[in-house]
Specification:
four-stranded antiparallel sheet, 10 strands, six-stranded mixed sheet, alpha/beta, single chain, about 230 residues, Rossmann fold
Length: about 230
Amino acid sequence: MSEILQVEKINSYYGKSHILFDVNLVVQEGKTLCLMGRNGAGKTTTFKSIMMVVPPKTGKVYFQGKDITGYKTYQLARMGLGLVPEDRRIFSPLTVKENLIIGMSTGRKGIWNINMIYEFFPVLKEFESRPGGTLSGGEQQMLTIARTLMGNPAVLLLDEPTEGLSPVMVKTLKDLVLKLKDVGTTILLSEQNIKFAMAVSDYVAIIDKGHIRYESDIETFKMNDEIKKQYLAV
Protein backbone atom coordinates (compact mmCIF):
# COMPACT_ATOMS: atom_id res chain seq x y z
CA MET A 1 0.00 0.00 0.00
CA SER A 2 1.50 3.32 -0.99
CA GLU A 3 1.18 6.66 0.75
CA ILE A 4 -0.25 9.22 -1.64
CA LEU A 5 -0.67 12.21 0.70
CA GLN A 6 1.36 12.99 3.81
CA VAL A 7 1.07 15.85 6.25
CA GLU A 8 4.15 16.22 8.44
CA LYS A 9 4.15 18.33 11.60
CA ILE A 10 2.26 21.28 10.14
CA ASN A 11 1.56 24.35 12.27
CA SER A 12 -1.03 26.73 10.87
CA TYR A 13 -2.28 30.11 12.03
CA TYR A 14 -5.08 32.58 11.40
CA GLY A 15 -3.24 35.83 11.95
CA LYS A 16 -1.57 35.37 15.33
CA SER A 17 -3.92 32.59 16.45
CA HIS A 18 -2.18 29.21 16.43
CA ILE A 19 -4.77 26.71 15.11
CA LEU A 20 -2.91 23.50 14.11
CA PHE A 21 -0.14 22.04 16.26
CA ASP A 22 2.33 19.55 14.67
CA VAL A 23 -0.44 17.80 12.73
CA ASN A 24 0.56 14.53 11.04
CA LEU A 25 -1.65 12.55 8.63
CA VAL A 26 -1.02 9.77 6.12
CA VAL A 27 -3.51 8.93 3.36
CA GLN A 28 -3.02 5.54 1.67
CA GLU A 29 -3.82 5.21 -2.02
CA GLY A 30 -7.27 3.74 -2.64
CA LYS A 31 -8.32 4.11 1.01
CA THR A 32 -10.52 6.52 2.96
CA LEU A 33 -9.10 8.35 5.96
CA CYS A 34 -11.62 10.23 8.08
CA LEU A 35 -10.50 13.24 10.12
CA MET A 36 -13.00 13.53 12.96
CA GLY A 37 -13.53 16.11 15.66
CA ARG A 38 -15.97 18.54 17.16
CA ASN A 39 -16.83 21.91 15.61
CA GLY A 40 -13.79 24.17 15.72
CA ALA A 41 -11.35 21.30 16.35
CA GLY A 42 -9.27 22.12 13.26
CA LYS A 43 -10.68 19.84 10.55
CA THR A 44 -11.39 22.50 7.92
CA THR A 45 -8.14 24.32 8.71
CA THR A 46 -6.27 21.07 8.07
CA PHE A 47 -7.94 20.79 4.65
CA LYS A 48 -7.21 24.45 3.89
CA SER A 49 -3.58 23.92 4.90
CA ILE A 50 -3.23 20.89 2.62
CA MET A 51 -4.67 22.97 -0.25
CA MET A 52 -2.44 25.95 0.72
CA VAL A 53 -5.47 28.21 1.20
CA VAL A 54 -4.03 28.65 4.70
CA PRO A 55 -0.36 27.75 4.11
CA PRO A 56 1.32 26.15 7.15
CA LYS A 57 3.92 28.32 8.90
CA THR A 58 6.05 25.21 9.55
CA GLY A 59 5.92 21.56 8.51
CA LYS A 60 5.52 19.88 5.12
CA VAL A 61 2.82 18.46 2.88
CA TYR A 62 3.79 15.73 0.41
CA PHE A 63 1.63 14.57 -2.51
CA GLN A 64 2.67 11.54 -4.57
CA GLY A 65 6.11 11.80 -2.95
CA LYS A 66 6.60 15.47 -3.88
CA ASP A 67 6.93 18.33 -1.39
CA ILE A 68 4.02 20.62 -2.31
CA THR A 69 4.36 23.03 0.61
CA GLY A 70 3.96 26.60 -0.63
CA TYR A 71 2.39 25.71 -4.00
CA LYS A 72 -0.61 27.70 -5.20
CA THR A 73 -4.07 26.18 -4.70
CA TYR A 74 -4.80 26.08 -8.45
CA GLN A 75 -1.50 24.24 -9.04
CA LEU A 76 -2.51 21.57 -6.51
CA ALA A 77 -5.87 21.15 -8.26
CA ARG A 78 -4.06 20.60 -11.56
CA MET A 79 -1.73 18.10 -9.88
CA GLY A 80 -4.70 16.06 -8.66
CA LEU A 81 -5.89 17.29 -5.26
CA GLY A 82 -9.66 17.79 -5.54
CA LEU A 83 -11.32 19.71 -2.71
CA VAL A 84 -15.07 19.60 -2.10
CA PRO A 85 -15.44 22.58 0.26
CA GLU A 86 -17.75 22.69 3.24
CA ASP A 87 -19.78 25.56 1.74
CA ARG A 88 -20.19 23.85 -1.69
CA ARG A 89 -19.60 26.97 -3.83
CA ILE A 90 -21.52 25.94 -6.90
CA PHE A 91 -22.11 28.49 -9.67
CA SER A 92 -25.79 29.19 -8.98
CA PRO A 93 -26.80 30.86 -12.29
CA LEU A 94 -25.08 28.19 -14.42
CA THR A 95 -26.83 24.96 -15.32
CA VAL A 96 -25.86 21.67 -13.74
CA LYS A 97 -24.09 20.64 -16.94
CA GLU A 98 -22.21 23.95 -17.17
CA ASN A 99 -21.06 23.52 -13.55
CA LEU A 100 -19.74 20.07 -14.44
CA ILE A 101 -17.91 21.30 -17.57
CA ILE A 102 -16.10 23.93 -15.46
CA GLY A 103 -14.74 21.05 -13.35
CA MET A 104 -12.89 19.68 -16.39
CA SER A 105 -10.61 22.71 -16.53
CA THR A 106 -7.69 21.05 -14.75
CA GLY A 107 -7.01 19.06 -17.93
CA ARG A 108 -6.23 15.80 -16.11
CA LYS A 109 -7.01 12.44 -17.70
CA GLY A 110 -8.93 9.66 -15.97
CA ILE A 111 -12.19 7.75 -15.72
CA TRP A 112 -14.43 10.74 -15.05
CA ASN A 113 -16.39 12.40 -17.85
CA ILE A 114 -19.98 13.60 -18.23
CA ASN A 115 -21.33 10.11 -19.04
CA MET A 116 -19.59 8.50 -16.05
CA ILE A 117 -20.84 11.31 -13.78
CA TYR A 118 -24.42 10.80 -14.95
CA GLU A 119 -24.08 7.08 -14.29
CA PHE A 120 -22.99 7.77 -10.69
CA PHE A 121 -25.32 10.76 -10.17
CA PRO A 122 -28.58 10.04 -12.08
CA VAL A 123 -30.26 13.03 -10.40
CA LEU A 124 -27.76 15.37 -12.10
CA LYS A 125 -28.60 13.95 -15.53
CA GLU A 126 -32.25 14.54 -14.78
CA PHE A 127 -31.55 18.18 -13.82
CA GLU A 128 -28.71 18.92 -16.27
CA SER A 129 -30.46 21.98 -17.79
CA ARG A 130 -31.54 23.50 -14.47
CA PRO A 131 -29.60 26.34 -12.81
CA GLY A 132 -27.45 24.96 -9.98
CA GLY A 133 -29.02 27.41 -7.53
CA THR A 134 -32.45 25.77 -7.89
CA LEU A 135 -31.25 22.42 -6.55
CA SER A 136 -31.82 21.31 -2.96
CA GLY A 137 -28.92 21.34 -0.49
CA GLY A 138 -28.32 17.63 -0.95
CA GLU A 139 -28.45 17.90 -4.75
CA GLN A 140 -26.00 20.80 -4.62
CA GLN A 141 -23.67 18.65 -2.52
CA MET A 142 -23.85 15.94 -5.19
CA LEU A 143 -23.12 18.56 -7.87
CA THR A 144 -20.08 19.86 -5.97
CA ILE A 145 -18.65 16.36 -5.60
CA ALA A 146 -19.39 15.57 -9.25
CA ARG A 147 -17.79 18.83 -10.42
CA THR A 148 -14.64 18.00 -8.46
CA LEU A 149 -14.55 14.47 -9.88
CA MET A 150 -14.70 15.93 -13.41
CA GLY A 151 -11.11 17.10 -12.77
CA ASN A 152 -10.10 13.45 -12.25
CA PRO A 153 -8.41 14.03 -8.88
CA ALA A 154 -5.94 11.51 -7.46
CA VAL A 155 -7.23 12.38 -3.98
CA LEU A 156 -10.74 13.61 -3.20
CA LEU A 157 -10.93 15.84 -0.12
CA LEU A 158 -14.48 15.91 1.25
CA ASP A 159 -14.92 18.58 3.91
CA GLU A 160 -17.97 17.93 6.14
CA PRO A 161 -20.07 16.50 3.28
CA THR A 162 -23.07 15.53 5.45
CA GLU A 163 -23.37 18.97 7.08
CA GLY A 164 -27.00 20.17 6.93
CA LEU A 165 -28.23 17.20 4.89
CA SER A 166 -31.42 15.26 5.62
CA PRO A 167 -31.07 11.62 6.80
CA VAL A 168 -32.23 10.45 3.36
CA MET A 169 -29.53 12.49 1.61
CA VAL A 170 -26.90 11.28 4.11
CA LYS A 171 -27.75 7.69 3.16
CA THR A 172 -27.57 8.60 -0.55
CA LEU A 173 -24.17 10.19 0.05
CA LYS A 174 -22.97 7.13 1.98
CA ASP A 175 -23.94 4.86 -0.92
CA LEU A 176 -22.16 7.22 -3.33
CA VAL A 177 -18.92 7.27 -1.31
CA LEU A 178 -18.96 3.46 -1.13
CA LYS A 179 -19.36 3.35 -4.93
CA LEU A 180 -16.44 5.77 -5.31
CA LYS A 181 -14.34 3.48 -3.12
CA ASP A 182 -15.30 0.54 -5.34
CA VAL A 183 -13.71 2.29 -8.34
CA GLY A 184 -10.52 2.92 -6.36
CA THR A 185 -11.01 6.56 -5.31
CA THR A 186 -8.67 7.81 -2.58
CA ILE A 187 -10.60 9.95 -0.10
CA LEU A 188 -9.67 12.25 2.77
CA LEU A 189 -12.88 12.95 4.63
CA SER A 190 -13.63 15.45 7.39
CA GLU A 191 -16.75 14.52 9.31
CA GLN A 192 -18.69 14.85 12.57
CA ASN A 193 -21.33 12.24 11.76
CA ILE A 194 -19.83 9.14 13.42
CA LYS A 195 -22.29 6.68 11.88
CA PHE A 196 -21.51 7.97 8.37
CA ALA A 197 -17.75 7.97 9.03
CA MET A 198 -17.77 4.40 10.35
CA ALA A 199 -19.73 3.22 7.30
CA VAL A 200 -17.32 4.62 4.69
CA SER A 201 -13.84 4.92 6.27
CA ASP A 202 -10.83 2.60 6.47
CA TYR A 203 -8.92 4.69 9.01
CA VAL A 204 -9.73 7.42 11.51
CA ALA A 205 -7.75 10.32 12.97
CA ILE A 206 -9.28 12.48 15.68
CA ILE A 207 -8.33 16.14 15.99
CA ASP A 208 -9.03 18.16 19.12
CA LYS A 209 -7.98 21.78 19.70
CA GLY A 210 -5.61 21.53 16.73
CA HIS A 211 -3.81 18.39 17.92
CA ILE A 212 -4.15 14.87 16.51
CA ARG A 213 -5.22 12.92 19.61
CA TYR A 214 -5.98 9.46 18.22
CA GLU A 215 -5.39 7.35 15.11
CA SER A 216 -6.50 3.82 14.28
CA ASP A 217 -8.13 1.57 11.70
CA ILE A 218 -11.92 1.78 11.60
CA GLU A 219 -12.55 -1.56 13.32
CA THR A 220 -10.45 -0.58 16.35
CA PHE A 221 -12.19 2.80 16.50
CA LYS A 222 -15.66 1.19 16.39
CA MET A 223 -14.89 -0.69 19.60
CA ASN A 224 -13.35 2.28 21.44
CA ASP A 225 -16.31 3.92 23.19
CA GLU A 226 -14.01 5.81 25.58
CA ILE A 227 -12.35 7.72 22.71
CA LYS A 228 -15.70 8.53 21.13
CA LYS A 229 -16.99 9.84 24.42
CA GLN A 230 -13.85 11.85 25.19
CA TYR A 231 -13.37 13.61 21.86
CA LEU A 232 -16.66 13.32 19.99
CA ALA A 233 -19.14 13.63 22.88
CA VAL A 234 -21.00 10.44 21.95
